[in-house]
Amino acid sequence: MMPVAQSMPPHGLAAEHGYLFLGAGPTADLRQSLNAPWRYAAFAQIRTLEEEGRNYPGLGDLRVTETTSSHARQILAQMNIAEVPTPTVVPISGGGLAISWNVGRREVQLSVFSDGDIVYMRTEGEAVVGEIEEGALSQARYVAGLEWLLGRES
Q1: Distance between CA 22 and CA 77 in Å, rounded?
Q2: Are strands 20-21 and 4-5 parallel, antiparallel or unpaired?
Q3: Quick check: 75 and 112 in contact, CB under 8 A?
Q4: Bridge partner residues of 103 (DSSP)
């Protein structure tokens, strides 16, 4: 089993070197988070954005906050589904992160903001599917969105 670092491991130690960094605070059952390769890629993207900080093109002085990245990691760790593609993680205004998965014309997007706010949205082509939801959502809701993305649920 891969060891879990409660604080950022020394520079250069990443998931491929036997560490998984989930950030501070309470996390989901870590054993569940080790079964999906997409998580490693998402965590690496988040770490890169943290390291680039204010130098990220187009962000000016806005920085992805530690609170935002830790919260995003916790949400991703709770998603108990292994078969989804690697998401794209990009910084958004105000120090937040947008995490999106795409399959064909379908997209699921989570926007995690520095104040703890979350916005969840599904789209097919240009159309929003269902409601744009704000606030804390359950793990089941996130997983249902990913099942929809894969065509397993309407």
Answers
A1: 8
A2: parallel
A3: yes
A4: 106
